[in-house]
Amino acid sequence: MITRRDLIARGAVGALALTWPEVADAKRLTRTQERALRSAVRGRVLTPGDNGYSGARVVFNTRWDGVKPPAVVQARDTADVRAVVSWADRFDVPLVARSGGHGYSGNSTSSTAVVVDLDRLDTIRFGDGIATLGPGARLGDVYTRLAAKGVTIPAGSCPTVAVGGLVLGGGMGLAGRAFGLTCDRVTSFDVVDADGKRRRVDDGELFWALRGGGGSFAIVTAVRLRTRRVTSAAYFSITYSRAQRAEALARWDAFAPRAPSDLTAILTLTSDGATAFGQYLGSASALRRLVRPLGGTPTVGSADYLTVQRRWAGNQNPPRSAFAASSIYVTKRLTAKGRGAFVAATDTGATLILDAYGGAINRPDRDATAFPHRDARFSVQVISYAPIATARAQVRQARKAIAPYGSGAYFNYADPDLTNATRNYWGANLERLRRVKREVDPGNRFRPTQGVRPAG
Ligand SMILES: Cc1cc2nc3c(=O)[nH]c(=O)nc-3n(C[C@H](O)[C@H](O)[C@H](O)COP(=O)(O)OP(=O)(O)OC[C@H]3O[C@@H](n4cnc5c(N)ncnc54)[C@H](O)[C@@H]3O)c2cc1C
C-alpha cells in the first residue's frame, strides 16, 4: 500500500492534493470514552480498526471516503440515540446525525464528531391520513408502502435518499408544485434534544427550525406527515439539440414556474443539449396540450403513481459516486443575456438542473418555516461527475457564470466550497435560526458541516 508518507517522499503530494478524495484523519476517542460509549448503547459502535468500520463510515458521495470519524454508532432505537447524546454531553464530544448519508457536502460525516447512524430507524406506518416515518426510511420504500394505501408525500426522486436529511433541508420533487416541499407536510417530529430528552415537537421555534433549517438542532427519530391521495400521474419529456438550448430555456422559463400547480417541470442543460421533463397530476392528453408552449416533440404517457415514481428513480439502488455540486435560486425571468450565460455555463462541462418552483412551494411566507426560498421561480443545481478536482473547478466556474442572475442556495444541494454558505442557505431566516440554536443547543453539540451556530 502506498502511504501518504511515501508520496511525500516521492514529491507527489501536489498530485495527491488534486486526485485524492478529501482526507481527514480521525480524532480518536480515549479508551475511557470508547468503553463508556460501548456500554451505553445496544447498537454497534465502530471505531477505527474495527471490522466493519470502513463500510460504516462512508457516505453516498465517494468524494468523502477519506473522512474518518472517531466512531460510528449504529443506533437501534430512540433509547440508543438518547444514550449517545448523554454520553457526548458527559465527555463533551460533538455529534453529527446520519440518516441516508446522501448529503452532498459530506455533512453527515466528520473527522471530529461521532456519527449517530439512524439507518435502522426506518419504520413506515400509515393511519388517519398521516404517514409516520423513521428518519432512516428510504424514499423508494416510502413511495412503495404509501402507494399501497393510495396516498403519497411530496419528496425527491432518488430512491435511496432518506427521509431524515431530506425533510430537514426542505425536500423538493416532482409533486412539489402540487403538494409543496416535504417539510411543508410535517405535522410533528419526535426528537432527542441536546439534553438527551425525547420530545414531540409540533409547535414553537424548534418546530419552525426543523422544517428547512437542517440537522443542527436535535436528532430526529420520527416524522409525521400529511399525505395526499393519488392514484396515477402523467409524465412528459422533450429533448432539444445543442443549438436549441437558449430557446428551450426561454420557453421553459416563461412556462414552467407559472404553469398550473399540478405540473412540476424540470429542465436539464448540458453542453450537448437540453431536456425538459415533468409530472402532471392529470391525464396524458391534458398534459400534451399543456406543454405545447415548450415546443419540440413531447413524449407523453401516464401510469399508476408508483410506476411513475420508479420511472423517475431509474436504478432502484444507485451506486455510490463522486461528484461536486452547488446551487442557486432565480427569482426573475431571465433576460436574453442571462440565458446566454446559462448556456455558456454548461460549456464548462457542468450540468445545470432547473427545478420549477411556484405553485404550492411558493404559497407559504418566507418566514413560515426555516426554508426561505419562497419567491424563487426556479432552483438551479450545478453538478459535475468529472474527477473531483476538475468537477470542483467546473462547478465553481459555472456557478460564477450564472451568479449575476440569482442568489441564495439550497441546503439539500449543499456546497462545501460556497462562501457565506449559511447566509446563502437560509437568507433572512438565518438570525432566527441562530437564536433557536442558542436556545436548544447552546453548547453546539450537533455539528454538521455548514450547520447553524448559536447566536451570540
Ligand atoms: C442522488 C441524489 C439525489 C437527490 N435528489 C434530491 C431531490 O430530488 N430533491 C431534494 O430535495 N434533494 C435531493 N437530494 C438531496 C438530499 O435531499 C439531501 O442530500 C438530504 O440531506 C439527504 O438526506 P439523507 O438523510 O440521505 O442524508 P444524510 O447525509 O444522512 O444527512 C444530511 C444532513 O441532514 C442531517 N441529518 C440527517 N438525518 C438527521 C436526523 N435524523 N436528525 C438530525 N439531523 C439529521 C445530517 O447531519 C446532515 O447534515 C439528492 C441527493 C442525492 C445524493
From TrEMBL:
Domain of life: Bacteria
InterPro entries according to UniProt: BBE (IPR012951), FAD-bd_PCMH (IPR016166), FAD-bd_PCMH-like_sf (IPR036318), FAD-bd_PCMH_sub1 (IPR016167), FAD-bd_PCMH_sub2 (IPR016169), FAD-linked_Oxase-like_C (IPR016164), FAD-linked_Oxidoreductase (IPR050416), Oxid_FAD_bind_N (IPR006094)
Keyword terms of this UniProt record: FAD, Flavoprotein, Oxidoreductase
Molecular function in Gene Ontology: FAD binding; oxidoreductase activity
Coiled coil: none
Pfam families recorded: BBE (PF08031), FAD_binding_4 (PF01565)
Domain FAD-binding PCMH-type: 65-230
Keyword presence, Oxidoreductase: yes
Cofactor: FAD
Family according to the record: Belongs to the oxygen-dependent FAD-linked oxidoreductase family.
PANTHER family per the UniProt record, alphabetical: BINDING OXIDOREDUCTASE, PUTATIVE (AFU_ORTHOLOGUE AFUA_1G17690)-RELATED, FAD-BINDING PCMH-TYPE DOMAIN-CONTAINING PROTEIN
Name used for this protein in its record: FAD-binding oxidoreductase
